[in-house]
Specification:
Elements: E1 6-7, E2 16-21, E3 27-31, E4 34-43, E5 46-51, H1 54-60, E6 68-75, E7 81-87, H2 106-124, H3 133-151
Parallel strand pairs: 1-5
Antiparallel strand pairs: 2-4, 2-6, 3-4, 4-5, 6-7
Helix pairs in contact: 2-3
Length: 160
């Protein structure tokens, strides 16, 4: 993102801000004020940036470059603030999702299984006693979770 880009202020309540995302991902970091998420957008024909608070970031991260969105900060009767992010003109252009990695060849899949088994068994701990049925069950669970990460999962969202 351009370091000299104007920062857009989204202060008006119940006001629509039609924007287009100009990057597939935001820049993230931390400062003395806490974590931040910076998005590049085009608003009224001008490339600008938005510092998205967590609630807005969670909604924006579902979209990718070129997505035309309407951002709106609503306030209900209780004074609660909420971000509403809707696709402009009803055209949903989500960020391209990585699906399960179908291009893995047998050799790569075998290497992934070996690595997952090694990490899963070493995470249980070494002992001179044979593993119990409970240990073997836990190794299988850990190995399966590692293989989900290495080989890809259907939704590609990590559980944390």
């Amino acid at each position: 993102m351009n370091d000299k880009m104007k920062t857009m202020q989204l202060r008006k309540l119940n006001h629509d801000y039609p924007v287009m995302l100009t990057y597939d991902q935001c820049k993230s970091g931390a400062s003395q004020y806490g974590p931040w998420n910076l998005y590049g957008v085009e608003y009224e024909g001008v490339e600008q940036s938005i510092f998205a608070e967590d609630s807005l970031h969670l909604k924006l991260m579902k979209y990718g470059k070129g997505a035309r969105l309407v951002l709106r900060r609503n306030q209900d009767q209780n004074g609660e603030l909420e971000w509403q992010v809707t696709p402009a003109n009803g055209n949903i252009q989500h960020k391209p999702q990585q699906t399960s990695l179908k291009y893995l060849d047998d050799r790569t899949a075998d290497i992934h299984r070996q690595v997952a088994l090694k990490i899963a068994t070493s995470s249980i701990g070494q002992s001179t006693k044979p593993w119990t049925a409970e240990d073997l069950s836990e190794i299988k669970v850990r190995m399966d979770k590692l293989l989900d990460i290495l080989d890809g999962t259907k939704n590609d969202e990590l559980p944390y």
